[in-house]
Every structure is written in C-alpha cells, then in structure tokens.
Amino acid sequence: MSLGKFLTSLTFFKQLFLAIVITVVFLFALIKFLDFRTNHGEEINVPDLSKMKLEVAEEKLDEDGLEVFLLDTVDFRPEFPPYTIVEQDPKPNSKVKDGRKIYVKLNAGGFSTVTMPDLINKTFRQAASTIRALGLVEGKSKYVPNIAKDVVLEISQNGKKLKAGDKILKNSTIDFVLGDGKELFKEEETDSLTQQLIDTTATN
Fold it and tell me: Does 147 have pLDDT greater than 80?
C-alpha cells in the first residue's frame, strides 16, 4: 500500500485517533499527579507558635506539613519564657502551602549584662538617657545639699552603690542621688548672718 493510500485509509485515522486519546489521557494523568504533589488549591492555616519551645514547634509544624527555621535569638523579653518563640513569619492564621518554612526567633535565656559607664558629675538628663540606651530602668531620685543642681553624685541598685565598670543585668533599676543646688545659698546666708553679728557687736 502506498503512503498516499495509507494516509487516507480508515486504519490510519483509527491509529491517529488512538494516539490522540493516549496523549490526552497521559497529559490529564500528569496534571492530576502534579496537583497532588503540590497540593494545588489546598492551603494550611499557620498555627500560633508564640511561647513554644523550638522542639515543640517542630513537632507541631511537622504534623501540619510545614517546617520551622530558626533565624536568631533576641534579647531577653520578660513576658516570654526563656528559650521560647517570640516572633514568627508568616504570622499566625496566615494561609500557606504544604512544605512552607516558618521562620522564628527565640527568646534569650535571661537578661544579658551591661557595663556601667561613669555617670558621676553628669547631669541627670544625660545620665537618664545613657541608662535607657543600655536597657536599664530609671528608678528613684534623691536630692541632697550640693552646689550643683541636678548633677549625679551617686548611683545605686537595690541599695548597693555602683561605680563605673560594674557589671549589672539589663532591665535593672538604677537609683540616683542628685545635687539640689541649694548649698551655695546656705553658705551665702551663713556669711550674711555672721557679718550682721559682727556689725551688731561693733556698734554695741
């Protein structure tokens, strides 16, 4: 049979139709397989991992078909237990696909230490700004007679006097002893009274 007659024969068209059907079925099966592998159209609700230990979060996410990835450890936050998750991305209740990584940050095990700078003879405003920048807390201020007003004369923590170079924990409360700026005036008043007494004695 010549090629021309074969291409116009019923046998050719039957084989062509069969090939088309097989191709369509194969493509349909391939698409369904890919949809199954990628969970096409299916989304997972991201759980809230806040305050969870890392190993607990790993088990939880594994059950949901997700993964956890530790990014960093942050400075200690007292409102969270030590070594628990404080931040996550994506956020809780976000919709994600199966296999998505959830990025987390852990709380430190406790407050880190800072070195006390030299705050003596600094103004209270300067000292307060410095301790806040170090992660410390401004406590009580006590005024005592001194020529310099609002100048730091002494600093302490829980009644213990501190000096430059001391190591203390972040979030510690620092108390201040400040000058009231009145000592000069007291000295001037004393000198004036002394002079008045001398003048009175001389007149008598």
Answer: yes
Q: Using CA atoms, how far apart are residues 123 and 146, in angstroms rounded to an integer?
A: 13
Contact (CB, 8 A) for 144 and 179: yes
How many helices (H) does the chain have, and how many strands (E)? 5, 11
Q: How many domains does the chain have?
A: 3
Task: Convert the pLDDT of each residue in 96-143 to its tens digit.
Answer: 988 899 999 999 999 999 999 999 999 999 999 999 999 999 999 999
Domain enclosing residue 168, as ranges: 113-186
Report the C-alpha gap between 150 and 98 in whole angstroms.
61
Residue 126 lies in a domain: yes
181 contact partners, CB below 8 Å, separation of at least 6:
146, 147, 148, 149, 150
Based on the fold, state whether residues 101 and 126 are members of the same structural domain: no
Instruction: Classify strands 137-144 and 173-180 as parallel, antiparallel or unpaired.
Output: parallel
Interval 40-89: pLDDT, tens: 557 899 999 999 999 999 999 999 899 999 999 999 999 999 999 999 99
| Whether 120 and 137 share a structural domain | yes
CATH code of the domain containing 72:
3.30.10.20
